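ok so i was messing around last nite and threw this chain in just to see what happens. nothing serious, just curious
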Amino acid sequence: MAVCFCGSAVTEGRSGMLTWRRARPVVAVMMTAASIAIPLEIGFADTASANSCAVSASFGHQYVVATYCGSNTGISGSWHNNNMGVTATYNYLTSEIWDYTNPSGAQFLEAGLIDAYDSTFGWTNPGCPSGCYAYQAFWGDMAGTGAYYFHWLTNTIPNGLNNGYSLMPNGTANHHWTVGYNLAAVGTSTVQVTNTGWEAASGADQYNTSPGDFATTFTMTDGISVGGSWTNPAWSAFYDTMTCSAHLPCFNMGSYANDEFSWNEV
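result:
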């Protein structure tokens, strides 16, 4: 669910704000995290090289992101559980952070919120034993083989509460990365090839095939670790790959500063 952007032409976003909308009923269940390997098919994850980093968003697979183009040792982000939703079985919409760990390949990590239907593109949500639309916290990672792994954390609700996420290398020779959720370690990626991130990003990703998806404004506050010291990121670029049409909603980029990026969708 990611594509690298550093080095691509910047597309200016559209400003705009949304009023609050009520989401569909969701389940709120705390369960043990689970993961499943997913083959790269039907546009689930665009695999652009971090050297070329050309925008490769396909029809229906779109991003609105702020990027930090440079060597780093982790990214953190926090934002409120605001309202967002999808309307079709194979749609998903996220608010998340990313870090690419291979300058000549496609390995990356991601963590954040996702609204999607259970079994979308093959993943399983243990909180939906019979299938449901779920507003959920997750993390994911991609191996050099091209296999993407979706790791479910918990179903939650758009209650407006603030939550934090982080992606950090453990600094050992095995190149494992630790995933954090609300200051607790919740997962370990074992498929990365370095202890260094080469491009970090914050924003939203969606796969959309029908109208009706929406998101109120998400204001994301982020930090980048450079040389072991956390700092407010000086964003290198901002991207909005959404092409508006009668069939798809539009992303909007709002305010952005050295440590903040906001977006919504209407």
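not much to say yet. The mean pLDDT is 76.
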